[in-house]
Amino acid sequence: MRPIFTKLLILLSMAAYSQQSKTKPVIIQGKFENFTDSILYFYSQDELYRTQRSIIKVNPDGSFYHETSKIKQPDIENWISNDANSISHKKITLSPGFNLQMTADAKDAKTFESTLRFSGNGAEVNTAWQQTNSILANAFKDVPYRRLSPSDLKNKMIELQQYMSHIFDSLLRIYNLPDREPYVLLHDYEVFFANCAYLCQELSGRLCTPTERLEELDSFLKMKKISSLFQDKFLAVSNYRFFLNQYASLKTELSKTSETYFIKEVKYALSIPPKKVRDYLLYNNFDKYIYQSRSYEGVIWLQEKVDSLYSIFSNKEYETVIHENFEKKLAQLKELSIGKTIPDIPLPDSLGALHKFSSFRGKVLYIDLWASWCPPCRAENPALKKIVESYESRSDVQFLSISIDKASSDWKKAVRDDQMHWLQLIDDNNQSMSNALFVQSVPRYVIVNKEGKIVTFDGPRPRETEKVKALIDAELAK
C-alpha cells in the first residue's frame, strides 16, 4: 500500500488534470443487440455534486450515441435502462477525452454480462474493472458475510479490497495504461466507502445501537488509515457522499439536545471543518427537507428557517440552487395539496388499457402505491385484500394498486402471486404519478373523495383496517 501522502498527491493531480481537460468532451456510443427499450438514463454529477440525469436515445437497431462535457475528472458514472431483464443498472469509468464504445447482446442479464465489450479511448480501464469484478465474484462468492462477527467482517472487507486493488492495478499494467494511478485510487475509494455503507447497514440490521455502529465504523476507517472522514477530496466519490449522509445521521441521532432534528442536522454539519464537505452536507439536508415537504405551510416554515442560514455557505451557488428549489416546490404545492384535484394522469393496466382518474368521479378512491421488490408493500396485501372484499357490494368505492416497478414482468408476477384481483395499474410514464403525489418511498396510501379531491397523501396502511374503513366510510357518508 502506498503512503497516504502519495495518495493525496495523486488526487491533487486528478484535480489538476480536471482543470486542464475542461474542454474535452466524453463520448459514449455503441450498439446492444436484442435491446427492447428506446432510452438509456445516464447519471453524472455537477460541480455541486448533485446528480444530473441525461437521456440517451437508443435507435431501433440498438445503436446509441451520447456526448457530454459534464465529466470534469476521472469518475465512475451510472447508467440505467428500464429494460430490467438485461441492463437495469451498470457503472462505467469515464474521464475527459474518453470516446468509449460498447457492444453487447441484451437478450437477458447473463448474456449481457458475458458479451459486454469495450473499445476506443477508455476501453482499458473499463475492461480491467470488468475483469476485476469477475475475478472477485469467484474468489469471494462463498464468504458468509452476514454470519461474520463485526471484527471478522471488517478484516474480510479490507482483504477483499487489497486483493481488488492489486488485480486492477496489475491488469492496467498489462494494458499498458500510462496514467493508471488516478483510476486505481478512484476505484479503491469507491469500493471502500461502499463497504462502509454496507457495514453501517449490516450493523443496523443486527440491531446495534448508534453508538456501537459509530465505534465499528470509526475503527474501520482507522484500518484503512484514513485520518479523517471529512476530506474535500473524497466528495468526487459517489459512495463517499452516500456514506457521509449515513454517518452524519448517526451522529445526529446521538445528540442529546431537545432541538428539532432539522436543527441538530444543521449544527452537526456546521461542526465539520472542510468547507466543501460542510457545504455539501448542509445543502443535502436542506434539499432533503424541501423534497419531503408535503404542505405549503410546511415549506414556508422551512424557508423561513433556511433564509437565516444562507450566510453559512462558503459556496454561494448553493444559496441560488436552494432558493430555486423552494420556488419550484411552492409552485408544485399550489397545484397539488390536500383538497386539490388529483392529477388526471392516464396509467395502463396489465392489458395496456389506459385509465384516467377523472373516470372514477363519484367514487371514493383508496390508492395503494407499491412495488414488487418492496417487502413491506407486499406484506400489506393480505389485509388489503380483505378490505377490498368487505366493500365488494359498494359501487361507490374503488381500490387501485399502482406499481412503480421498472419491469412489467416483475409487476405482473407479483400481482398473480399475491392474488391482487382488484384494479392494477403501473406508473411506467417516467414515474409521473409518483412524482405528482410526492412519493419518496413505498408503500404509500392516498385517499381521494368522490369529487376527485385528495383527502390524504399519507393514509393508514391496510393492517390498520379500522382506520382505513373509518376514512373511507366518512367520505362515503358525505
Brief descriptors of the model:
478 residues, alpha+beta, five-stranded mixed β-sheet, four-stranded mixed β-sheet, 46% helix
Question: What is the terminal separation in angstroms?
Answer: 72 Å
How many extended strands? 15
Backbone structural class? alpha+beta
- Portion in strands: 15-25%
Biggest β-sheet: strands ordered side by side in the sheet: 13-12-11-14-15
Broad shape = globular
The whole-angstrom Rg is 25 Å
Helix content: 40-55%
With helices defined by DSSP (H or I, 4 residues minimum), what is the helix count?
Answer: 16
Largest sheet: 5 strands, mixed
State mean pLDDT (0 to 100 scale): 87
Contiguous runs where pLDDT drops below 50 for at least 5 residues = 1-12, 15-21
Structure description:
- Helix 8 (261-270) runs antiparallel to helix 9 (275-292) and helix 10 (296-307) packs antiparallel against helix 11.
- This protein has helices spanning 4-20, 109-115, 123-139, 150-174, 181-205, 210-223, 238-253, 261-270, 275-292, 296-307, 317-335, 375-379, 381-390, 408-417, 432-436, 465-476, and strands at residues 26-33, 39-45, 51-57, 63-68, 75-80, 90-94, 99-105, 117-121, 347-348, 354-355, 364-370, 397-403, 423-426, 444-448, 454-456.
- With 478 residues, it is α+β, with helices and mostly antiparallel strands.
- It is 46% helix and 17% strand.
- It has a 5-stranded mixed sheet.
- It is globular.
- Strand 9 (347-348) and strand 10 form a beta hairpin.
